Amino acid sequence: MPATRAEATEPVVFIVDDDEDVRTSLQELMLSVDIETSCFASSREFLEATLPERPGCLLLDVRMPGTSGLDVQQQLALRGNTKPVIFITGYGDIPMTVQAMKAGAVDFLTKPFRDQTVLDAVVAAIELDVAQQAGTRTTRHNLAKFATLTRREQQVMRAVSLGRLNKQIAHDLGITEVTVKLHRGNVMRKMHAASIGELIRAWESLPCDVRGKEQS
To answer: Which tens digit of pLDDT belongs to each residue from 159-208?
Structure first.
């Protein structure tokens, strides 16, 4: 059954660890603060699962039979899955920690760890995921609106967002100031921007490759 709007906003923590006792302990800890969990006994089981579109994070054991936790992190990145990862391990070392953090992990916890330490890390990771999802939705919406602009309107939007004046834009593009104003009005309307500030924020939310194309 599809999740209701309320259910879709409730966080869920994915626990991936081959040690059943660890999974149970972490699950009970999360449930003690009313955070739902979904547990997996192996990396393969997790990677093959269909995950719900809800805010949350991943509690991931580093050393597991078969695919390691670091490999899982890499595969998620290749899939474009930005779910925050908190690594847990009983065999952590500095090089491993550095590798995990450079790859985007939000924390690296070495067993045994305090319950409060885990909870603090999970809360921070969930907040990060909520912010990331909001940013992704904003980018998606702005990309859809940006796609409705003509090539010339996209050029004008870029110029305005970079602080260029109408006179300068007209000179750069080889058109009249009146034409620039017309394009600028169309851009504001199509991007649903009530002010230049909103237009600039919309421009800056676009992916770098899109803004790069305009710059070239």
So the answer is: 999 999 999 999 999 999 999 999 999 999 999 999 999 999 999 999 88
User: Which CATH number describes the domain made up of 148-215?
Assistant: 1.10.10.10
| Superfamily of domain 5-138 in the CATH hierarchy | Response regulator (3.40.50.2300)
Identity of the amino acid at 111: K
Q: pTM higher than 0.90 for the full model? A: no
Q: Range(s) for CATH 1.10.10.10 in the chain?
A: 148-215
For the chain, the residue count is: 216
